Amino acid sequence: MSMLRIAIVGRPNVGKSSLFNRLIGKRISIVDPTPGVTRDRISGVLELSAPSEVEDTEPRFAELTDTGGYGVYVGEGARFDDAGADLALLTESIEAQIRFATREADLVLFVLDAHSGVTALDQTIASIMRKEGTGEKVVVVANKVDDESWESHAFEFSALGFGDPMPFSAKSGFGRAALSARLWRFIGEDGAEPREERLKFAIVGERNAGKSTLINALSGQPRVIVSEIAGTTRDSVDVELDIKGHRLLAIDTAGVRKRKSWSDDVEYFSNLRARDAMLRADVSIFLIDATQKISQVEKKLSLELQKQFKPTVIAVNKFDLVEDTLQPQQYVDYLTQELRGIDYAPLVFISAKESSGLDELIKLVVNLKRQADHRESTGKMNRIIEQIISERGPSSKLGTRAKILYAAQVATAPPTVVLVVNKPALFTPGYRRYLMNRLRERLPFSEIPIRLVITERSRVSLSALKGGDHRSTDELLEDDPPSADPSASEH
Prior knowledge:
Layout lengths: L4 E5 L6 H9 L17 E7 L11 E7 L15 H23 L2 E7 L6 H12 L6 E6 L7 H4 L11 E2 L8 H12 L11 E6 L6 H9 L17 E7 L2 E7 L12 H16 L2 E7 L6 H12 L4 E6 L10 H11 L8 E4 L7 H16 L4 H14 L12 E8 L4 E6 L7 H14 L8 E6 L5 H5 L6 H5 L11 E2 L1
Parallel strand pairs: 1-3, 1-4, 4-5, 5-6, 7-9, 7-10, 10-11, 11-12, 14-15
Antiparallel strand pairs: 2-3, 8-9, 13-14, 15-16
């Protein structure tokens, strides 16, 4: 059974994103006084514990959705500078996302500002919801009620006709227990189980590469705002997909660009969200615009994906616009030259606008997840390593030969292989690359990064690695300084 959906709506700057983050318990939506920061629908799983007076009851779950500010351009506080000009063009799309969210929702939290009282725009929003037939599922949340002295101001909102408001402070948490209890009871027993875990993939790339267009093509609906305006997507947007039996969670991210080009704090946080999206995703889709040359930003993004050991599909978008003058193999050779170190990643040519190549893209995403989750037996791992060393092993100029004392895969996602050897210094960066390529040929890790840790006996805690500790070898050794060996290495 699908989870119940709760949407948060209201005019700009009443604290919708702060309320969303407070209820979710994580900083997901960007909070900033600039009107129009939240534009798409931002969703997260709301987990609510039973009220204190209820005993022996499991938590309940719902999908909570943050929306952009209704009337962001024409409402109070709108700016008529460059940012305001952009918002003027986006207002219709933002408000369409709000209407869609309220129609889909089982409950709507209408957020108002207790310090401002009822405004003309608040009344307009209330009127729209009544006309669209969503008024019966509205709960008014009077935000910025920081303590009991402000509670009387909250009840002014009863005049809107949606019942008694819930006093609340997203900033201090005042009223959270009462609001959570009301939502817990609304969700009921149907929300007693969290939804099934989905394969998560993040779509990353430069601005205007077509990330939001791709999300909408995959979802079959205008789930996120698509615009020619650079930087339209600000938050990381989670979108649930069910494609040919695969349960997926697509994460649309803000387009990245050079740090010196960041215009404000919002863009700084947008870039942090994009990086966090890569971290929490199982797989990344690195979206590249075929009509543009590979930039320094894309090269740095490629290095970040490698640094995170993130399984990656390189999706070349808009290739249909250049295929008359450029052969696919020519472009593959070009990417190999420009994006060094990530040549193991599979590549697919797509057109997000025309919805072509998407089936192959999803197949690759699912396949990479399977590769990342595979665990090889210790016996087979030792045999393969011994074969590779016997065919071509590292040695010093003095004739010292490397000996493998132990080899094992100690973790998945990323596959982490530990080699305990006699002389770690013999395993030069060049030889490690050779070893990595041979491992990809002989193990089911042909298209994903492998984390390789090379150390002397007793120089690193294998139990820490088996527990999924993804720190570098140097960091692991800091826990046991007397046995630390600077010759231990990781790739």
